Amino acid sequence: MRIRFDKLGVVIAAIAAYAAFLAPFATFRANRIVPGEARSILEALPTTAGPILLAILVAGALIALLKTPLVLRLGASVVALAALAILIGVAGSFLTPVGNTFARVSPASGFWLLIFAFTLLLADVLTRLNPSPWARVGVLVVAAVAIGLLLISGQWNSLSILKEYANRADSFWAEGSKHITLALGSLAVAAVVGLPLGILCHRVEKLRAGVLNVLNIIQTIPSIALFGLLIAPLGWVATHVPGAAELGIRGIGTAPAFVALFLYSLLPVVANTVVGLAGVPRAANDAARGMGMTDRQRLFGVEFPLAFPVILTGIRIVLVQNIGLATIAALIGGGGFGVFVFQGVGQTAMDLVLLGAVPTVALAFVAAIILDAVIEMTATKRRVETA
Amino acid sequence: MIEIEGITKRYEETTVVDDVSMVIEPRTLCVIVGTSGSGKTTLLRMINRLVEPTAGVIRLDGNDNRSLPGYELRRSIGYAIQGHGLFPHRTVAQNIATVPVLLGWDKARIKARVDELMTLYQLDPDAYGPRYPHELSGGQQQRVGVARALAAEPNVLLMDEPFGALDPIIRNKAQEDLLAIQKRFGTTIILVTHDMEEAVHMGDKIAVMDAGKLVQYAKPAEILAKPASAFVETLVGASEKPFRLLSLGRVRDAVEKGTAEGEAIPGDASQRDALAELLWSGRPALPVKGEDGKPLGRVTVDGLVKRAARPA
Ligand SMILES: Nc1ncnc2c1ncn2[C@@H]1O[C@H](COP(=O)(O)OP(=O)(O)OP(=O)(O)O)[C@@H](O)[C@H]1O
Ligand SMILES: [Mg+2]
């Protein structure tokens, strides 16, 4: 029998081999800011766990390397990821001397590369299985529950990022909810303003170019500059409009961050609404009028549903973009996960930076998967006619 | 009754429909023929005000069609759009139900009507009802388009090349069904077509359009016998005329006394079919039977050939 290699598998196996045998698995530091010492898999884990993990990784890499059935590849990636997730926690407790509260253990490059390699394998399998939108959301929920269980079980408590969390549990959730409020709130307002504006631009051709150009220009202003530009007008509003200051409107803080995110969100929402409405087949519009629909019935019954997948794509762009951009809000006292990132940068405490960055990335990822699934669900039902 | 009076439509400098006047009697089927771009669709769409005329009036049963808001007018007029124009995001059943829903019929009545129409057009309601238009063939889509136009049992039906995408067998069936519906409900139908055969077969009257003008509006026999211009003559096809004329008549009207050998032809077959059968089988005469199967007499080649000659 000829041995056949999987193309992507070669890459995955190479990364996994390097990460497992040459790169450090975990980093040990005597306290949170001193440079760390690298530990390999065998050094970082108790006597039996180390070889077991290596065996799992080698087997997984081999399965990835050769042309194997999809189910086997799926199993290999899930087992490898689960083993890595559990054992990094074990490494944390194993490397931390008993009773030492200053020592920090964090995952090192080898761990991250292994996670990357097997996530790549998992993603590849999932793409080839071509799951339905519901199945994709299902996979996401399973992964989220698994991670949630690991967090609750305390399995990871000995890792540095969770020690940073333990010190800031209250402010973590406060900043987290502020982050989500900023990202979702500005999106909601952008949708409320942008959808009618997009419809207006579609109906009134004269408005279209002008509005889209202005929004395009706003989009190119760097975020810090936009914050700066907003300080003066919002400050003026706060002092001159009665009640504004009580509502939290100020030159710095949440208000300018919210306004900036809102402005950035407008272009994708308006542009996609215009493009979506323009893409409605002429015959469908014609039939709608011919059957006796009023303008409003045609808008909500025909144009809007047909444009919906495109509009939703705009909303997806905005949501993912806003979750990332909201990090910057911390710079002007707007709160959010960015607070930890910038504090961490200031203190050169990498773990603290991660405490802000990891949830941000996770949120963006979850938002993207869910919205992609929704878009696909709406689009398959409302496929555009070919005639 | 539909009265079209001095209707003109201009787009900037070009006149697309030019001073057309015609009266369509109630419960009749009027066919509009003409070359591509001659303004047929535009004329049709001025009746339900999808296009507003530049000049002229259209009255439906004596009422100016501008006396109602456009959307209300259109709900009362069936419209089968050129190239079907189904809603891609709605199922076949939902598409057909469009106007009844706009009119606020109750659910049971809508469902019954949709099932009735789908059955009429040979689309199994359970199998095809929940499908989306892109899951149908072109001919099926077109039938759904016609069913949608019929859904609210309109008194007036505008049809823009409704049978273009159908194969000859289904087209024949669809034409017969439409004629049956028209008889049963007394619908006034205006049908646009490119197909002269269809026009002669279906129309109580034929309107011939050329470059926006109505060049002749008359009964099919008259159009065939006395084309008003060289254009109409070419359109009806000079070499086809005798056969078209024959296809207008029924065998029962050409029966002569006497008997003949062989299988009998039904009395309501067209004279054209009878002549074809005679020529094909090489016989001089065919027996004719009535609906009850009783012999009515016979038709002869000579008799039919005389009828195919230009009427005086
Ligand atoms: N909205 C419009 N603006 C400008 N010109 C138009 C418009 N609609 C139709 N026309 C022109 O009017 C003429 C007649 O169009 P119409 O659609 O009535 O033709 P038709 O007889 O239905 O042709 P076909 O048999 O190809 O469907 C064409 O030359 C067309 O280009
Ligand atoms: Mg036309």
TrEMBL record, chain A:
It is a multi-pass membrane protein. Its main location: membrane. One of its GO terms (biological process) is glycine betaine transport. Pfam families: BPD_transp_1. The chain crosses the membrane at residues 7-28, 48-66, 78-98, 110-127, 139-159, 179-200, 212-237, 257-278, 299-319, 325-345, 352-375. Keywords: Membrane, Transmembrane, Transmembrane helix, Transport. Residues 176-371 form the ABC transmembrane type-1 domain. One of its GO terms (cellular component) is plasma membrane. It is found in: Cell membrane. The keyword Oxidoreductase does not apply. InterPro entries: ABC_transp_perm/SBD, MetI-like, MetI-like_sf. It comes from the Bacteria. Coiled coil: none annotated. Belongs to the binding-protein-dependent transport system permease family. This is ABC transporter permease. The lineage of its organism: Bacteria, Pseudomonadati, Pseudomonadota, Alphaproteobacteria, Hyphomicrobiales.
From TrEMBL, chain B:
One of its GO terms (molecular function) is ATP binding. Pfam families: ABC_tran (PF00005). GO terms for biological process: quaternary ammonium group transport. Keywords: ATP-binding, Nucleotide-binding, Transport. Gene3D superfamilies: P-loop containing nucleotide triphosphate hydrolases (3.40.50.300). InterPro entries: AAA+_ATPase, ABC_transporter-like_ATP-bd, ABC_transporter-like_CS, CBS_dom_sf, P-loop_NTPase. Transmembrane segments: none annotated. The keyword Isomerase does not apply. The keyword ATP-binding applies. Residues 2-236 form the ABC transporter domain. PROSITE patterns: ABC_TRANSPORTER_1, ABC_TRANSPORTER_2. Belongs to the ABC transporter superfamily. This is ABC transporter ATP-binding protein.
